[in-house]
C-alpha cells in the first residue's frame, strides 16, 4: 500500500525524498499552511487519498450530545453562551438526574448514535459532581454505547475515577492557536487545557480534542491549531472541527463569517495532518448546505454530532441527516 502519512503525502507532491525520510514526523504549522495554499482540487484529492488509505470513505461515525448541566459557568470563553460573564447566557439548569440522562441516551441509540457525549458547563468538576457524572457514565455504558464527557479542567485523580466508571473518551478542545487563545478566553490559559489532556491520557482514556474556526483567527492560527493537535503523542483519536455559531450576547456575536471553502480546507488539512483520527464535523453543521457537508465528507470528515441539540445550539435534525446519508450512500457506524 502507498505511504499516506502526512509527510509522505507532501513528499510525493513535492517529489522530495527528504520529506519521505521523516515520514512519521508530525506536520509543522508551515507545512500545514502550505497545504492550505494548494489549489482546492489538489488539496481535496490529497485529503481524500489519505482518508481512503486509513478509513472506509463511505462510513461516518455518529455521536449524540447532551448538556447535563447548563449555564452559569465562571469561565469567559468568547464563543460560549453558557458563560456567566456574557449577556446572552443560556438559562441555567442544574445537573440532570441519571434517569434523565439514560432516557436521552436510549433515544440517541435508537436514532443510530454509537457514542453518547455528556457536557457540563463548569471550569472543572467538584469531586461531589464527579461522583454523579460517574454514575451517568456507568449507566450509559451499560446501554452498549461508547461514552464521552466534557466537564472542563480536571484535577489529579478525576480522570482515573471517570475511567473506572467506564468512560471511553474525554473531550477538551484546544479551541484555537496558542497565539489567538488570549483573544478568546482570559479566565484560563490554553496550557491549562493541555495539562488536562495530559491527565486524560495518563488515565488511559481516549482523547477528543479539536477547535473552533471562524473566531476572527488567521489562516496561520488555523494551521497552528492543527499542528498542535497533530503533535500530541498520540494525536487525539477524535478531532472535532467546529464552525463558530455566533450567539447574540456573546463577545463573538459579530465575528466575520468564514468562507465555506476555507472551512473545507481546514477539514482537509486536519485529515492529512491526522490520518488515523476521526475528524468530526461538529457545531455549525446546521447552517451548512448538503453540498457543503458532502464536500467536507469528501475532504475527510468521518464523524458528526447527531440528534436535535448540540449543547445549546441547534443541530441539523436527525431526519435531515438520515436523508443526506441516504442520498450520499453513507453508512453510519
Ligand atoms: S469552560 Fe466550557 S462551558 Fe464554560 S464558558 Fe468555556 S466553553 Fe463555555
From TrEMBL:
The enzyme's E.C. designation: 2.8.1.6
Pathway assigned in UniProt: Cofactor biosynthesis; biotin biosynthesis; biotin from 7,8-diaminononanoate: step 2/2
Subunit and interaction comment: Homodimer.
Entry's transmembrane regions: none
GO annotation, biological process: biotin biosynthetic process
Cofactors, names only: [4Fe-4S] cluster; [2Fe-2S] cluster
UniProt keyword Chloroplast present: no
Catalytic reaction annotation: (4R,5S)-dethiobiotin + (sulfur carrier)-SH + 2 reduced [2Fe-2S]-[ferredoxin] + 2 S-adenosyl-L-methionine = (sulfur carrier)-H + biotin + 2 5'-deoxyadenosine + 2 L-methionine + 2 oxidized [2Fe-2S]-[ferredoxin]
Family: Belongs to the radical SAM superfamily. Biotin synthase family.
InterPro entries documented for this protein: Aldolase_TIM, BATS_dom, Biotin_synth/BioAB, Biotin_synthase, Elp3/MiaA/NifB-like_rSAM, rSAM, rSAM_sf
Function as written in the Swiss-Prot or TrEMBL entry: Catalyzes the conversion of dethiobiotin (DTB) to biotin by the insertion of a sulfur atom into dethiobiotin via a radical-based mechanism.
Cofactor binding description: Binds 1 [4Fe-4S] cluster. The cluster is coordinated with 3 cysteines and an exchangeable S-adenosyl-L-methionine.
Gene3D superfamilies xrefs: Aldolase class I
Residues annotated as binding [2Fe-2S] cluster: 117, 148, 208, 280
Lineage: Bacteria, Pseudomonadati, Pseudomonadota, Betaproteobacteria, Rhodocyclales
Presence of keyword Thylakoid: no
The entry's keywords: 2Fe-2S, 4Fe-4S, Biotin biosynthesis, Iron, Iron-sulfur, Metal-binding, S-adenosyl-L-methionine, Transferase
Binding positions for [4Fe-4S] cluster per the UniProt entry: 73, 77, 80
Organism: Rhodocyclus tenuis (Rhodospirillum tenue)
Domain Radical SAM core: from-to ranges: 58-285
A Pfam short name: Radical_SAM
Family annotation (SMART domains): BATS (SM00876), Elp3 (SM00729)
GO molecular function: 2 iron, 2 sulfur cluster binding; 4 iron, 4 sulfur cluster binding; biotin synthase activity; iron ion binding
Identification of the protein by name: Biotin synthase
Amino acid at each position: 500500500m502507498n505511504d499516506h502519512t502526512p509527510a509522505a503525502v507532501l513528499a510525493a507532491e513535492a517529489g522530495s525524498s527528504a520529506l519521505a525520510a521523516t515520514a512519521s514526523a508530525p506536520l509543522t504549522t508551515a507545512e500545514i499552511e502550505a497545504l492550505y495554499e494548494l489549489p482546492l482540487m489538489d488539496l481535496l484529492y490529497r485529503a481524500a487519498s489519505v482518508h481512503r488509505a486509513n478509513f472506509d470513505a463511505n462510513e461516518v461515525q455518529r455521536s449524540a450530545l447532551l448538556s447535563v448541566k447548563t449555564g452559569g459557568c465562571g469561565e469567559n470563553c468568547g464563543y460560549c453562551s453558557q458563560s456567566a460573564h456574557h449577556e446572552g447566557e443560556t438559562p441555567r439548569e442544574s445537573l440532570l438526574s441519571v434517569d434523565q440522562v439514560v432516557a436521552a441516551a436510549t433515544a440517541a441509540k435508537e436514532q443510530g448514535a454509537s457514542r453518547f457525549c455528556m457536557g457540563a458547563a463548569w471550569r472543572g468538576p467538584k469531586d461531589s459532581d464527579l461522583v454523579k457524572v460517574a454514575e451517568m457514565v456507568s449507566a450509559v455504558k451499560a446501554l452498549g454505547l461508547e461514552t464521552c464527557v466534557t466537564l472542563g479542567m480536571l484535577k489529579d485523580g478525576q480522570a482515573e475515577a471517570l475511567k473506572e466508571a467506564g468512560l471511553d473518551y474525554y473531550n477538551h478542545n484546544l479551541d484555537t492557536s496558542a497565539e489567538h487563545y488570549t483573544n478568546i478566553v482570559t479566565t484560563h490559559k490554553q496550557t491549562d487545557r493541555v495539562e488536562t489532556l495530559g491527565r486524560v491520557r495518563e488515565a488511559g482514556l481516549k482523547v477528543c480534542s479539536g477547535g473552533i474556526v471562524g473566531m476572527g483567527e488567521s489562516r496561520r492560527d488555523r494551521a497552528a491549531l492543527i499542528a498542535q493537535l497533530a503533535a500530541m503523542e498520540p494525536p487525539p483519536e477524535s478531532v472535532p472541527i467546529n464552525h463558530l455559531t455566533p450567539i447574540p450576547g456573546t463577545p463573538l456575536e459579530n465575528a466575520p463569517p468564514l468562507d465555506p471553502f476555507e472551512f473545507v480546507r481546514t477539514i482537509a488539512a486536519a485529515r492529512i495532518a491526522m490520518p488515523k483520527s476521526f475528524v468530526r464535523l461538529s457545531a455549525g453543521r446546521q447552517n451548512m448546505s448538503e453540498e457543503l457537508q458532502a464536500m467536507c465528507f469528501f475532504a475527510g470528515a468521518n464523524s458528526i454530532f447527531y440528534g436535535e441539540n448540540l449543547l445549546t445550539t441547534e443541530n441539523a435534525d436527525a431526519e435531515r441527516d438520515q436523508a443526506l446519508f441516504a442520498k450520499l450512500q453513507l453508512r453510519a457506524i
